[in-house]
Specification:
- The chain folds into two domains: 266 residues, UDP-N-acetylmuramoyl-L-alanine:D-glutamate ligase (3-Layer(aba) Sandwich); 129 residues, Alpha-Beta Complex (Protein-Tyrosine Phosphatase, Chain A), CATH 3.90.190.
- α2 packs across α8.
- The chain is 38% helix and 19% strand.
- The longest helix has 17 residues.
- By secondary structure, the protein is an alpha/beta fold.
- The strands form three sheets. It has a seven-stranded mixed sheet, sandwiched between helices.
- A hairpin with a 2-residue loop joins β8 and β9.
Length: 418
C-alpha cells in the first residue's frame, strides 16, 4: 500500500482528512460529518465501504461519484503496477479515492476504515486532521484477534503522533483503556465524547420520517434522517468532532450542523441505516445491522417503530455471529424469511432457517433471489424488515429502485447544500 501511495504521489498529503475507525457506527458518523461539512460550504471527499450499486460510491465528492472516463483512464494508467504488486480490490479503490479527492480539489475528506485500522489500506494516511474511534465490539475476530483488547489495539492503529483523537461514548472498558494508553504513548490529545444524545419521537417532514434527538447539555433538539436509537452515540461523536474542527479554525455554523444532521443520509448519501421506504401501502424498513450489538439496537427500534414489523427478510455473511444476532430478536412477533445475497460469502438460507426455528421463530427459506422474496413478502401487505448483510440490503434496494410502484423514491434528495 505504501508503494501504491508513492506511485500516486501521496495524494492524501494535499488535503486535511478525518480518519474514522470502529466496529459500529463509523459509517453513520462519517455520513454525519460529510453532510455537516457540505452544508458548511466545504467541498468534501467522502470515502466509505462497501458500496451498494457501483464501486465508485466509495469515493464521492459532495455526493457525486467520479466520471467513468476518469476511472477508465486511472485504471489503464496503473494497470501494470496493480497486477505486479498484486493489489487487492480494496487497496486499489482506496488509492483511487485518495487520488480522486486530490484531483477534485477537495477542502477536506472524511475517510472510513475498511477493516481494523493498523493494517487497513486507509492507514497509509500519515497525519489526519483528527482520528475518530467509534464503539468497539466483537467482529472479524479471525483477523483482528480473540479479545476486545486485541480488536481495540488494531483500531487504535489510526492514532497518529500529536494528532487529536475523538473517542465515542459507549466504549467497553478494555477498549477505552487501550485507546488511552495508545494516545498517551503517541502524545495524541484524546477527547472523550460525553453522553449520547437521547432519542425521542418520530416526526414527518417533507413526507419523510425523521427522529428527534435531545442534546442534554444545551437542551437543543436535532432532527435526523438516520433515526435509530443507537444514532444518539454517533450524533454525539460527530458533534464532538465538530467542536475539535472549530478549535482548529474551521467555520461550521450551527445551521450547517442542524441541516447536516437532518439530511445526513440524503446528503452523504448513506443507505440502509434504518431507512424507511413505502411500497404502495406497505412500509419497508432497511437496516444493515450484521452482528449481535447491531441487532440488539435494531430490537430497541422495532419496539418503538411507527409500524410493527411482521415479516423479516434476513441474510448474513458466513463469517458473522448470526446466532447471536438472531437471538436479539427473540420474543418479537415476526416471521423470518431467510435469504442469501448473490455473494460467495453469503450464509446458506437453510442454516439461518434452522437457527431461527431453534430460537422459536416461525421461519422459512425465501425464494431463489432477494428480489423475488421481497416482492412475495410485499404481496402479503404487511410491514417488512430487510436486515443483515449490506449485500442483502443492497439487492433489496436495487429491486425497489427499478420498481414503479415505489412511493418514496430511494434517490429522493434533501435540499442540496451549495
Amino acid at each position: 500500500m505504501q508503494a501504491w501511495d508513492a506511485r500516486l504521489g501521496h495524494p492524501h498529503r494535499a488535503y486535511p482528512i478525518i480518519h474514522i475507525a470502529g466496529t459500529n457506527g463509523k459509517g453513520s458518523t462519517a455520513a454525519f460529518l460529510a453532510s455537516i461539512l457540505q452544508w458548511a460550504g466545504y467541498r468534501v471527499g467522502y470515502h466509505t465501504s462497501p458500496h451498494f450499486f457501483r464501486f465508485t460510491e466509495r469515493m464521492r465528492v459532495n455526493g457525486q461519484e467520479p466520471p467513468e472516463t476518469w476511472v477508465d483512464a486511472f485504471l489503464k494508467s496503473h494497470a501494470q503496477f496493480i497486477v505486479e504488486q498484486n493489489l487487492s480490490f480494496f487497496e486499489v479503490t482506496v488509492g483511487m479515492s485518495l487520488a480522486w479527492f486530490q484531483q477534485a480539489q477537495v477542502d477536506i475528506a472524511v475517510v472510513e476504515v475498511g477493516l481494523g485500522g493498523r493494517w487497513d489500506a486507509t492507514n497509509v494516511i500519515e497525519a489526519p486532521l483528527v482520528s475518530v474511534l467509534t464503539p468497539i465490539d466483537w467482529d472479524h475476530v479471525e483477523v483482528l484477534g480473540p479479545t476486545l483488547t486485541h480488536i481495540a489495539g488494531e483500531k487504535a492503529g489510526i492514532i497518529k503522533p500529536g494528532r487529536p483523537v475523538v473517542v465515542s461514548p459507549a466504549q467497553p472498558p478494555d477498549a477505552l483503556r487501550v485507546f488511552q494508553e495508545t494516545a498517551q504513548a503517541r502524545n495524541a490529545p484524546l477527547i472523550l465524547s460525553e453522553k449520547p444524545l437521547v432519542p425521542l419521537d418520530w416526526v414527518l417532514q417533507e413526507a419523510l420520517p425523521y427522529r428527534r434527538f435531545w442534546e442534554p447539555q444545551t437542551e437543543k433538539i436535532y432532527l435526523s434522517d438516520l433515526p435509530g436509537d443507537y444514532q444518539g452515540v454517533n450524533l454525539r461523536t460527530a458533534l464532538q468532532v465538530v467542536q475539535v474542527l472549530r478549535t482548529q479554525g474551521w467555520t461550521i455554523p450551527e445551521t450547517a450542523v442542524e441541516k447536516g444532521l437532518q439530511y445526513a443520509a440524503q446528503t452523504a448519501p448513506l443507505w440502509g441505516r434504518t431507512q424507511w421506504i413505502l411500497h404502495e401501502k406497505s412500509p419497508i424498513l432497511l437496516e444493515v445491522a450484521h452482528n449481535p450489538q447491531g441487532f440488539a439496537a435494531l430490537r430497541k427500534l422495532l419496539e418503538k417503530a411507527p409500524y410493527q414489523i411482521e415479516i423479516a427478510l434476513i441474510g448474513f455473511s458466513a463469517d458473522k455471529d448470526y446466532r447471536g444476532a438472531l437471538s436479539q430478536l427473540q420474543g418479537l412477533p415476526v416471521e423470518i424469511w431467510a435469504v442469501a445475497a448473490q455473494n460467495p460469502r453469503a450464509l446458506a438460507p437453510a442454516e439461518i432457517t434452522r437457527t431461527a426455528q431453534r430460537l422459536g421463530f416461525p421461519a422459512q427459506e425465501g425464494e431463489s433471489t432477494i428480489s423475488q422474496t421481497l416482492f412475495k413478502a410485499l404481496s402479503c401487505g404487511k410491514p417488512i424488515l430487510v436486515a443483515g448483510s449490506i449485500f442483502v440490503v443492497a439487492e433489496a434496494l436495487a429491486a425497489l429502485r427499478t420498481n414503479p410502484q415505489q412511493q418514496n423514491p430511494i434517490n429522493t434528495l434533501a435540499p442540496r447544500p451549495r
